[in-house]
Description:
By secondary structure, the protein is an all-alpha fold. It contains 19 helices and no strands.
Amino acid sequence: xxxxxxxxxxxxxxxxxxxxxxxxxxxxxxxxxxxxxxxxxxxxxxxxxxxxxxxxxxxxxxxxxxxxxxxxxxxxxxxxxxxxxxxxxxxxxxxxxxxxxxxxxxxxxxxxxxxxxxxxxxxxxxxxxxxxxxxxxxxxxxxxxxxxxxxxxxxxxxxxxxxxxxxxxxxxxxxxxxxxxxxxxxxxxxxxxxxxxxxxxxxxxxxxxxxxxxxxxxxxxxxxxxxxxxxxxxxxxxxxxxxxxxxxxxxxxxxxxxxxxxxxxxxxxxxxxxxxxxxxxxxxxxxxxxxxxxxxxxxxxxxxxxxxxxxxxxxxxxxxxxxxxxxxxxxxxxxxxxxxxxxxxxxxxxxxxxxxxxxxxxxxxxxxxxxxxxxxxxxxxxxxxxxxxxxxxxxxxxxxxxxxxxxxxxxxxxxxxxxxxxxxxxxxxxxxxxxxxxxxxxxxxxxxxxxxxxxxxxxxxxxxxxxxxxxxxxxxxxxxxxxxxxxxxxxxxxxxxxxxxxxxxxx
Length: 507
């Protein structure tokens, strides 16, 4: 029963992300968001999520895993209601990150995610049972990915765009009641004290890096500001974070964990798989609605195979690990993600949904293989006392991989889109404000084309769709290369068999 409560609570976090993907085209039309703004709406949550998750994981070990979990659940529900009533894209980004009031959707999720996994690891100490429980946990994530697009489509067809956030609230309330009654509490009495300096450094470093990638299409990839934010500041702050964690007597991330290849390679594999999956979902929902003309609900149904296959394959992944080993399962999963991205990247303006369906299915298959196998390898290397920080490290790798996937693939799409549209529009000498709107996103260009009508409107819509599909192909091709490099890394360096940690008996 406790596992059920934890998995349902996890469901609302994954539900939130996938519902948002289907709502992105609607956010272009109603709050009038550009593609860069859409990237920030998705990444603001992930940035705070990743930046605070390590601190939340160590806090869960120190102060009690159920206590931190329940606190995060309350924060998540409360600020989901705030996001639902945001009056602008700027307010929505702030609500997603939770920066304005200090507690937000990102903060709440950061407190929930590591707590669920560390509680599961503490409850199921037998390696075989733990592996199966983690498989159920991962399948729940897949279920959230599956239900989210369809639920988002239904909500957007009948209610306003804020309903995709408001739907989190009843789940949060039910989770609070059930967690208090059914979930056992546990803690590590000797856990180190919190590390606020490390937490701040990680948020600043990751934030600068994401800002540079997201803003590069607007300001220029070689602009001094972008290069300074990415290399001169972002990477420098992350180096300071690593040095601080190594020198600190109470680090929130024990960098010595990364000496173990079962931990470091598994973490990297998970992150690279999410890079491809999150980046693909970001562009696919826009492609299906803007280019192929599907409604939000129809888009949700057509994204369903990704999540459905992920949910089916995830519980089977532990069985495959026992038979073939972690290396084979993770490496094969990353290859499936790479081939899926490559297949979808070949779409053109004449392509149909059936033409990209094989790639969509491969994405779900690959993610379903990678996540449980990598997660079990990662968690299996840790002593019982560090499961909170370990699960938080996995959460950070997932969120940062996904955030960078959205940022990089989305930015490459925008850059190619603008490079194709700019010269084509130049002879028409459009007013600067109109030109900026057309270059801002495909949705804005199609809106203007619809209002223009006639041959001119038709020409603009065809040009914009062609430029978007070209940009999507570039972004997904890069995503495929990233996933393929992850497969090479897994086959070369990830040990085949799950370890038995020193303080856990073999079964």
